[in-house]
């Protein structure tokens, strides 16, 4: 379908909403992005080049999808809302340059948290080459998605994710900050995180209560030595199980023996009353290595 008005413009979005009687579903955390400047800002932040392989999570009615395709990307999208595929089929352009849409875009009705990326993408992406993830994430499921991506074995070049501003600040937080926690550590042991742009709540329909941020995550060249990623993330979460308590208190469930706890804290070179947010990532790696793997 050819249309000179971008899907992400307020007038086109409203027309699509009226035509298909579609409503943003609260239970799926849907908010349609109707700010073309913000959409193009996301595409720019993700540095899309001709031929880039992009996973999109939650394409919605295609506002961001359309611009990713026009920028030269090949897009594989995960969507859980069964009402949206016909809209995407009708509203996205039939041709992208000289290419048919079917050669550049594939939609899978599937929860991304249940994705087997290598199986899902086989035959559409060249898995010998890296992929980018670009997404406007639902607020309620942002953290699980980021953890799932961080723990997957897919070769990511970058993740460009729009999320609640508060979550974005946790991703980029440093030790000693109130925002520093399990999410910060899980991401920063794998990737460099930076906030690329802010998006006001007025850029969405319906309008959420909070503003958003776009975070760009790129793979670290020199990753820390973490033997078992899931075990490490679990240990970190346990250390933060009660943020207001000291590290010593939070370690009780992991190391019941008082002397062993004292020895570990001494090895870390910190005060027993230190709080978990004041530790460095290197110190969490030491803790994880001292905790036996869960059977």
In oligomeric terms, what are we looking at?
A: single chain
**Beta-strand level of the residues, as a percent range?**
15-25%
Overall form: elongated
Q: Give the helix tally.
A: 13
CATH fold field value of the largest domain? Rossmann fold
Element pattern in H and E = HEHEHEHEEHEHEHEHHEEEHHHH
Spans with pLDDT under 50 lasting ≥5 residues? none
CATH architecture designation of the largest domain: 3-Layer(aba) Sandwich
Main beta sheet: strand number and arrangement? 7 strands, mixed
Please list the strands of the largest sheet in the order they lie side by side.
6-3-2-7-8-11-9
| CA-CA gap between termini | 54 Å
CATH superfamily label of the largest domain: Vaccinia Virus protein VP39
Domains (count): 2
Rounded average pLDDT? 91
SS elements, strand count: 11
CATH top level class name of the largest domain: Alpha Beta
Task: Give me the secondary-structure category.
Answer: alpha/beta
Rg calc? 21 Å
Helix content: 25-40%
């Amino acid at each position: 379908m050819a249309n000179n008005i971008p899907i992400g413009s307020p007038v086109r979005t409203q027309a699509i909403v009226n035509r298909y009687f579609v409503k943003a579903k609260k239970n799926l955390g849907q908010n349609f992005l109707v700010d073309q400047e913000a959409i193009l800002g996301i595409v720019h932040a993700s540095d899309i080049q001709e031929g880039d392989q992009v996973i999109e999570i939650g394409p919605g009615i295609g506002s961001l999808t359309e611009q990713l395709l026009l920028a030269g990307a090949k897009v594989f999208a995960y969507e859980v809302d069964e009402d949206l595929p016909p809209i995407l089929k009708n509203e996205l352009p039939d041709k992208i340059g000289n290419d048919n849409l079917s050669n550049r875009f594939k939609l899978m009705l599937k929860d991304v948290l249940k994705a087997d990326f290598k199986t899902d993408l086989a035959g559409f992406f060249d898995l010998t080459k890296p992929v980018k993830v670009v997404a406007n994430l639902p607020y309620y499921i942002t953290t699980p998605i980021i953890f799932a991506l961080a723990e997957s074995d897919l070769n990511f070049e970058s993740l460009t994710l729009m999320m609640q501003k508060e979550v974005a600040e946790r991703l980029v937080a440093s030790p000693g900050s109130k925002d520093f926690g399990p999410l910060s550590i899980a991401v920063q042991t794998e990737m460099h995180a930076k906030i690329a742009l802010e998006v006001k709540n007025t850029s969405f329909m319906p309008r959420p209560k909070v503003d958003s941020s776009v975070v760009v995550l790129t793979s670290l060249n020199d990753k820390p030595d973490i033997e078992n990623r899931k075990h490490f993330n679990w240990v970190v979460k346990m250390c933060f199980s009660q943020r207001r308590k000291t590290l010593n208190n939070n370690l009780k469930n992991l190391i019941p023996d008082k002397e062993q706890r004292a020895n570990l804290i001494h090895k870390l070179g910190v005060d027993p009353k230190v709080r978990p947010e004041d530790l460095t990532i290197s110190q969490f790696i030491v803790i994880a290595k001292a905790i036996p793997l869960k059977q």
